[in-house]
Amino acid sequence: MELTLLFRGLLIGFSIAAPVGPIGVLCIRRTLSEGRAAGLLSGLGAATADAIYGCIAGFGLTVIANFLLAQQAWFSLAGGAFLCYLGVKTWQAQPAQSPALVAESSKPGDGLSTGRRMRSWLGLYASTFVLTLTNPLTILSFVAIFAGLGLAEAKRDIASAGILVMGVFGGSALWWLLLSSSINLLREKFNPQRLQWVNRLSGVIIAGFGLLALWKAFF
User: Fold this and answer.
1) Tens digit of pLDDT for each residue in 127-146?
2) In the chain, where are the structural domains located?
């Protein structure tokens, strides 16, 4: 029973993380510019937020879910503004001069002091964590999937719900690991000029998602 719940959680987390949106664009761009670790850290921030929303749905915390959905406009406003900011910063970002020379084991923040490196890692993780949390409609996705798979009764059993949420996190993290690893294989094909275009295209797409969120917040 536990293994079945864990497997279902993995499928749920993977399926919710897989559609490419602003987080996926950020993960791809950061992997190309800074390496696999940067892309994976970005993905793990989103996976953590997915696990939180999965926890709200899995444990039947309807009061919290209803509150978040009631504040949807404010979340869209905050998330949209943050996406627009990230879009502009991504457009303006200067690519590394020799990205192909960065070793496979390179880490985000290399060349920085320990404190600044930790802040760099935390920034990569926190940005996607916050962006994913500003989309409370994700709760509806979890609720719909749980109901469709007949998992609604899991909310009555703390242990079962906990296993399900662990699976959700694992499935989401697996997607980001696969994405960052596969994109990392293409890094050597991108010189600074191509990375500049990646930054600009990513910036436009991310800002576009931000403008869409702002439009939803006001209309």
Assistant:
1) 999 999 888 677 777 777 76
2) 2-78+92-191
